[in-house]
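Render this sequence as a predicted structure.
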Amino acid sequence: MAGNDLVHVVDDDVDVRKSLGFLLGTANFAVRLHDSATAFLDTMTGKIEGCIVTDVRMPGIDGIEFLRQLRARGQTIPTIVMTGHADVALAVQAMKEGAADFIEKPFDDRILIDAIRSALDGGKHAGATHPQSAEIGSRLSTLSERERQVLNGLVSGLPNKTIAYELGISPRTVEIHRANVMSKMMAGSLSHLVRMALIMESKS
C-alpha cells in the first residue's frame, strides 16, 4: 500500500483509537495508532507520509500545539482535527494553524473517510473544493449585512447563542441566517465555510 494511504490516529482515548483504527482499516487505509501527540512526536523521523487525524482536546500537547510543533519541525502532513460542538472556536484556531479540516463530533463515518481522502489527495482537487478568491468574493457579495455579521461570528468560532446576544437577535434567527449563509456561500460544512473565509482573509 502506498505511503499516501497511511493515516496516523493520534488520540488519548483508547476506545476512540480502536474504533477509528477499525473503521479506517475497513476503508482500506493503512493505520497507525498513537496515544498522544507527545508519543507521536517522539517517534517521528524524517518526513511523515499520509495524514493525521487527531482530537483538538488532549492532555499534555493538545491539537493546537500539536499543529504548531509539526509546522515548527517543517512537517507539512495534512491534519484533520476532531472537535466537540462546544469547541468550534478551537477548531477555527486549528485551521488558522494549518489544519486541513475539522470535523464536529459526533460525525458520520463517511464524512471522516471523505475528509481523509481529500487530505491525502494533497490538494489535487482543491479547485472544486476551495473556490478561488474571485468566486468566493462574488458569493460574499450576495450576503446581507446581517448575514455578514453572522458569518463573522461563525468564523470567530462563536456559538449561535453568543452571536445572538451580540447582535441583539434570537438564537433561532441566527440559525436562519446561518443556513442562508451556508446556502449562498455553497458551503457543504462549517469547516468549508471557514476555509473560504480564511482564503478571503489572506487576500485582504
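Summary. The mean pLDDT is 86. The first helix runs from residue 14 to 26.
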